[in-house]
Design brief:
By secondary structure, the chain is an alpha+beta fold. It has 2 helices and 4 strands. It has helices at 28-31, 74-83; strands at residues 13-14, 41-47, 50-54, 61-65. It has a 4-stranded antiparallel beta sheet with strand order 1-2-3-4, with no helix packed on it.
Length: 85
């Protein structure tokens, strides 16, 4: 298991399903897309609407395009999806 990223701060959290461990499966609040006290992710950083996250349960790190807030151009969204960054 990976260690927590040095940027991991409990004060910066996001509620997004972890694609690695799916620890929120069966959780009623998470199933209703509400925040809960157990299944949050560290928000390591963001670039506009692209979130860089880490799961505290399994330490998996990934990017998630929220499509919310400050946006990147559509080409940058498509391009970043193609490169996996």
């Amino acid at each position: 298991m990976l260690p927590l990223d040095p940027q991991a701060d409990i004060g910066r959290r996001a509620w997004v399903a972890c694609p690695n461990c799916d620890d929120a499966r069966g959780c009623a609040p998470c199933g209703e897309r509400r925040s809960c006290s157990e299944h949050w992710r560290y928000l390591l950083s963001n670039t506009g609407s692209l979130l860089h996250l880490q799961c505290p349960a399994c330490a998996h790190v990934w990017e998630h395009e929220s499509g919310f807030g400050a946006t990147r151009s559509p080409w940058r969204r498509i391009g970043s999806g193609l490169t996996g960054h």
